[in-house]
Automatic annotation (TrEMBL):
The keyword Repeat does not apply. InterPro entries: ADP-Glc_PPase, ADP_Glu_pyroP_CS, GlgC_bac, GlmU/GlgC-like_hexapep, NTP_transferase_dom, Nucleotide-diphossugar_trans, Trimer_LpxA-like_sf. Pfam families: Hexapep_GlmU, NTP_transferase. Involved in the biosynthesis of ADP-glucose, a building block required for the elongation reactions to produce glycogen. Catalyzes the reaction between ATP and alpha-D-glucose 1-phosphate (G1P) to produce pyrophosphate and ADP-Glc. Homotetramer. Belongs to the bacterial/plant glucose-1-phosphate adenylyltransferase family. This is Glucose-1-phosphate adenylyltransferase. The keyword DNA repair does not apply. The record marks 59, 98 as: Could play a key role in the communication between the regulatory and the substrate sites. Residues 7-260 form the Nucleotidyl transferase domain. It catalyses: alpha-D-glucose 1-phosphate + ATP + H(+) = ADP-alpha-D-glucose + diphosphate. It is an enzyme of class 2 (transferase). GO terms for biological process: glycogen biosynthetic process.
Length: 378
């Protein structure tokens, strides 16, 4: 049966602004919130929106991401008629290999999309934290008779110059796109979420390859071309919680925010579950010497120290008399005895020696990378 709409998740980003946290893994695979990875939110949105076929475009350090997603069983994509497909760069007859940009990645996977032959293609990023019903966005797209619908998030006007801004008329039709304008005319920031009529987008991508070969990015190239050619482009306003966790500061901040039980992710739709591919681990162990305040401590953890307003991912070990405050400790990290960790992100498999300190500030978060070791300073 023909699928009305499939999703294509762009998950190949290197995430250079996350520094040592992404030296061995792609940004969408970075852990978040104790038991998730960043891409879990986008995948869960697809599952909850009844999108059954999902193509996941990877490029940079995909091994851990591929293993996490597997066949999509954790999100229910392995059911009859559904599925996830990992789409990686390959050498083709026309010499293409690495994806040059977001729309070029879609062009190089036309054969996959054609094999499903959807009417609509939903383009998503794999590195945002949010809950969104894509079915409602598709309804909007159909009602407007759109060729392209762009999800937008109203932002404070004083911050609008940091984003790609969509200027619209009174009927939500996009009349102009401005990339990080010095004097923005509106505050409707692009979320990097698009619904395209597939045959129209396909025609543009193929024609471009036969001519200029310039349509590499949706924001920089495809949207301006659609507007110039008079295509029906509309802005779909989303007013829920949405966070781009592309920097150390924003990743730490988003983790700290979800410690608040009144966080909008908990209440925007309590039936909208966030799924993940979690390992099966024994229960946490909290010794007589431990004290835990306002924190998340997940399965497999062993705690013999004090934890204040922090998140411990699975299988973290915290030694005797150690103190962890306002920090994120990722999976399989080992914190020795008598350590102090404040305003920090400790990467997966990191080792903090007995008596060592990792101290940051709210404005300058300290970071220990994947598998790094921190020794005590004498």
């Amino acid at each position: 049966m023909k699928d009305e709409m499939i999703a294509m998740i762009l998950a190949g980003g290197q995430g250079t602004r996350l520094g040592v946290l992404t030296k061995s893994i792609a940004k969408p695979a970075v852990p978040f919130g104790g038991r998730y990875r960043i891409i879990d939110f986008t995948l869960s949105n697809c599952a909850n929106s009844n999108i059954h076929k999902v193509g996941i475009i990877t490029q940079y350090q995909p091994l851990e991401l591929n293993g996490h997603i597997a066949n999509g069983e954790a999100w229910g994509f392995n059911a009859s008629g559904g599925g996830t497909t990992i789409l990686q760069p390959y050498s083709s007859t026309d010499g293409e290999k690495w994806f040059k940009g977001t729309s070029n990645a879609i062009y190089q996977n036309i054969a996959y999309i054609d094999s499903i032959n959807p009417e609509y293609v939903l383009i998503l990023s794999g590195d945002h934290i949010y809950k969104m019903d894509y079915a409602k966005m598709l309804d909007f797209h159909k009602e407007k008779g759109a060729s392209l619908t762009v999800a937008v998030k109203p932002v404070p006007m004083e911050e609008a110059n940091r984003f790609g801004i969509m200027n619209t008329d009174q009927k939500d039709r996009i009349v102009e796109f401005e990339e990080k304008p010095e004097q923005p005319q509106s505050n409707l920031a692009s979320m990097g979420i698009y619904i395209f009529n597939w045959q129209t987008l396909r025609k543009y991508l193929i024609e471009d390859q036969d001519k200029e070969n310039q349509l590499e990015d949706f924001g920089k190239h495809v949207i301006p071309l659609y507007l110039a050619n008079g295509e029906a482009c509309y802005a779909y306003a989303f007013d829920g919680y949405w966070k781009d966790v592309g920097t150390i500061a924003s990743l730490w901040e988003a983790n700290m925010e979800i410690l608040n039980q009144d966080h909008p992710l908990y209440h925007s739709n309590p039936d909208w579950r966030v799924y993940s591919n979690n390992p099966v681990l024994p229960p946490q162990v909290v010794t007589d010497h431990a004290a835990i305040y306002d924190s998340f401590v997940t399965d497999g953890c062993y705690v013999s120290g004090e934890i204040h307003h922090s998140i411990l991912s699975e299988n973290v070990k915290v030694g005797l008399d150690s103190q962890i405050t306002d920090s994120v400790i990722m999976a399989n990290a080992r914190i020795g005895a008598s350590c102090r960790i404040e305003y920090a992100i400790i990467g997966e498999n990191a080792r903090i020696a007995d008596g060592a300190m990792v101290i940051g500030t709210e404005r300058d978060i300290a970071v220990v990378g994947f598998g790094d070791q921190i020794e005590r300073k004498n």
